[in-house]
Amino acid sequence: MFRFIIRRLVITVPLVLVVISLTWGLIRLAPGNFYSSEKALPPAIEKNIREKYGLDKPWYVQYGRMIGNVLRGDFGLSLRYQGQSVNQILAQTLPVSATLGLLAYGLALVVGVAAGTLAAVKQNSRLDYISMALAMLGISVPNFVLGPILVLIFSLNLYWLPPSRWGGFPSWNLVLPVLTLSAVYMAYIARLTRAGMLEVLRSDYIRTARAKGLSERAVIFRHAMRGGLLPVVSFTGPALAFLISGTVVVERIFALPGLGNYFINASLNRDEPLIIGIVAFTSILIMLLNLAVDIAYGLIDPRIRY
Amino acid sequence: MSERSDERLTGIEDTVNGKPHLISPEEMVPDRAEAFGAQDEEAVAGVSLWRDAWRRLLRNKLAVFGLIVVILIALASLIGPPIIRWATGYTYDYIPRDPDLIRAFPPFTAPDGSFSWAHPMGTDTAGRDLLARVLIGGRISLLVGIISTLVSLLIGVAYGATAGYLGGRVDNVMMRIVDVLYALPYMMIVIVLLAVFGQRSPMGQLILLFIALGSVSWLTMARIVRGQVISLKNQEFILAARATGVSTPKIIFRHLVPNVLGPVIVYATLTVPSVMLQEAFLSFLGLGVQAPLSSWGSLVAEGIQNIAIFPWQMIFPGATMALTLFSLNFLGDGLRDALDPQMRKV
């Protein structure tokens, strides 16, 4: 187990470097430059800009400097947000995105597991059909459609909730973004829970638990859930990747100052240090969280050995 | 086991003699091994695995609903725009000459405010018929879904089959690469790719989109094909092929790949909606399909600008897209139940 963790941690470093190099290469291979989006510059000014940002050096020097920055954890200054370092921007935007993501995933977990378990216990009942139809709807309605519809209903017609902007935590501004973001995960988790629970509820050890006279509640919560929720745990990995694209859209719809929103702007502006900073940061985050999921999986399921 | 296969045989004989089917197909194919055994025997009896699957699919009401809706939407996108042009003179880039008409009309409303059939989905802010735009957008959305799925199919099947058949160290390295790619935030790389290379020509952006989406969605396909190939490669027909001196590429593509088609079709069907969703996501962010082309994602993004005043401009493209994804998902689930009974979650 310990060796497994070390091995995974060691492999993370080259992986993140590969991701960053790929991103850097893409930005550099593309025609144009970050200062070339507006009208053509006089050659003297262009030369000055290139000197200031070190673009006149050979590519390997620039690449080496970029990698050095990443290894030191200092991503330099943003090209567009004047006077702000990438680290400052990360520190400002991360709390927004993390709050959104954590609340959405927490909500999805609670509602999804509850709905999935109920549907499995009362299989083929009306409750089962309704919750599975809702889950299919949740998977099929894109979040950028769901979000505006919620805004239309709850903000623009009923005047119950604010339609956009960040209001800190906790605030009413969070309700609609979190609902929008969590719908898809809720649906996936409900389906996975139902499938997992149905399989487990049929197994011999559940029959044994029932036969020895345990209450139905103990059978479901203490015995069935432990095995039945394994697919949900392994879904956490892919969910993290989804969560990133999800937050991008939700931050866009609700005008929230999160990582995703800044990332899109940075990509369109070719704000290289900011792009590299956000990509590096999220890659490391995803890999560490994936490792945590794998460790949790091993702890829950004794059949798995590393 | 033997009792079951007897039942299966009687079931088949009944159909052959034209008598009603006594045993349901679900019981006929209790597990994978028998399903493949059944394939050989059925070839003799004349009921193919495919026809059996088709029958099972038709019994699933939701899957049939999905199939019909998908066909209808595809047909409407294909032949709808010319019909609208013929009937009303409106095309997706038709901006009316009359300046009074350059504004948004609600659904089923004539310029003077009375009821009219001219624009069932209303018009957009430039006075263009929204139905025509949604149908044209459907062409692009469906095209992206299908082409990117084909790309992922080609890469995924070739990669997975090679890894599974060769096995050993090659397999280990190839699948480790897939694991690594799974862990990457590939959507971020796609966003950077489209943002820095795109925005030149609409057609170029579309091709970039095909490549970007196709090249990230083959991972699951590769895993599924590999798993299937590993379970097949030790069977006698492969041994026979190897014994008669068939080359390795030929064994993979002529003997193994045709036998894993069932699960491959199922996952391809489920890949289409997920790729369409990703395309819409990118178009929504302004990185996907560029004007004058439109897709459902870019129409929704346009509609959101005016959501408070002209809500229909967002609702109709969004609802069309949701209905299509809903149907494709149901169809995919139905196909999985029909083609791969073992995968069914009871």
UniProtKB/TrEMBL annotation, chain A:
<feature type="transmembrane region" description="Helical">
    <location>
        <begin position="274"/>
        <end position="300"/>
    </location>
</feature>
<dbReference type="InterPro" id="IPR045621">
    <property type="entry name" value="BPD_transp_1_N"/>
</dbReference>
<dbReference type="Pfam" id="PF00528">
    <property type="entry name" value="BPD_transp_1"/>
</dbReference>
<keyword id="KW-0472">Membrane</keyword>
<dbReference type="GO" id="GO:0055085">
    <property type="term" value="P:transmembrane transport"/>
</dbReference>
<keyword id="KW-1003">Cell membrane</keyword>
<dbReference type="InterPro" id="IPR000515">
    <property type="entry name" value="MetI-like"/>
</dbReference>
<feature type="domain" description="ABC transmembrane type-1">
    <location>
        <begin position="94"/>
        <end position="297"/>
    </location>
</feature>
<feature type="transmembrane region" description="Helical">
    <location>
        <begin position="229"/>
        <end position="254"/>
    </location>
</feature>
<feature type="transmembrane region" description="Helical">
    <location>
        <begin position="172"/>
        <end position="190"/>
    </location>
</feature>
<feature type="transmembrane region" description="Helical">
    <location>
        <begin position="9"/>
        <end position="27"/>
    </location>
</feature>
<comment type="similarity">
    <text>Belongs to the binding-protein-dependent transport system permease family.</text>
</comment>
<feature type="transmembrane region" description="Helical">
    <location>
        <begin position="133"/>
        <end position="160"/>
    </location>
</feature>
<keyword id="KW-1133">Transmembrane helix</keyword>
<keyword id="KW-0813">Transport</keyword>
<keyword id="KW-0812">Transmembrane</keyword>
<dbReference type="GO" id="GO:0005886">
    <property type="term" value="C:plasma membrane"/>
</dbReference>
<feature type="transmembrane region" description="Helical">
    <location>
        <begin position="102"/>
        <end position="121"/>
    </location>
</feature>
<protein>
    <submittedName>
        <fullName>ABC-type dipeptide/oligopeptide/nickel transport system, permease component</fullName>
    </submittedName>
</protein>
<dbReference type="Pfam" id="PF19300">
    <property type="entry name" value="BPD_transp_1_N"/>
</dbReference>
<dbReference type="InterPro" id="IPR035906">
    <property type="entry name" value="MetI-like_sf"/>
</dbReference>
TrEMBL record, chain B:
<feature type="domain" description="ABC transmembrane type-1">
    <location>
        <begin position="138"/>
        <end position="332"/>
    </location>
</feature>
<feature type="compositionally biased region" description="Basic and acidic residues">
    <location>
        <begin position="1"/>
        <end position="11"/>
    </location>
</feature>
<dbReference type="InterPro" id="IPR035906">
    <property type="entry name" value="MetI-like_sf"/>
</dbReference>
<dbReference type="InterPro" id="IPR025966">
    <property type="entry name" value="OppC_N"/>
</dbReference>
<dbReference type="GO" id="GO:0005886">
    <property type="term" value="C:plasma membrane"/>
</dbReference>
<keyword id="KW-0472">Membrane</keyword>
<keyword id="KW-0812">Transmembrane</keyword>
<feature type="transmembrane region" description="Helical">
    <location>
        <begin position="140"/>
        <end position="166"/>
    </location>
</feature>
<feature type="transmembrane region" description="Helical">
    <location>
        <begin position="203"/>
        <end position="225"/>
    </location>
</feature>
<dbReference type="Pfam" id="PF12911">
    <property type="entry name" value="OppC_N"/>
</dbReference>
<dbReference type="GO" id="GO:0015031">
    <property type="term" value="P:protein transport"/>
</dbReference>
<feature type="transmembrane region" description="Helical">
    <location>
        <begin position="264"/>
        <end position="289"/>
    </location>
</feature>
<dbReference type="GO" id="GO:0055085">
    <property type="term" value="P:transmembrane transport"/>
</dbReference>
<dbReference type="Pfam" id="PF00528">
    <property type="entry name" value="BPD_transp_1"/>
</dbReference>
<keyword id="KW-1003">Cell membrane</keyword>
<feature type="transmembrane region" description="Helical">
    <location>
        <begin position="62"/>
        <end position="84"/>
    </location>
</feature>
<comment type="similarity">
    <text>Belongs to the binding-protein-dependent transport system permease family. OppBC subfamily.</text>
</comment>
<keyword id="KW-0997">Cell inner membrane</keyword>
<keyword id="KW-0571">Peptide transport</keyword>
<feature type="region of interest" description="Disordered">
    <location>
        <begin position="1"/>
        <end position="21"/>
    </location>
</feature>
<dbReference type="InterPro" id="IPR000515">
    <property type="entry name" value="MetI-like"/>
</dbReference>
<keyword id="KW-1133">Transmembrane helix</keyword>
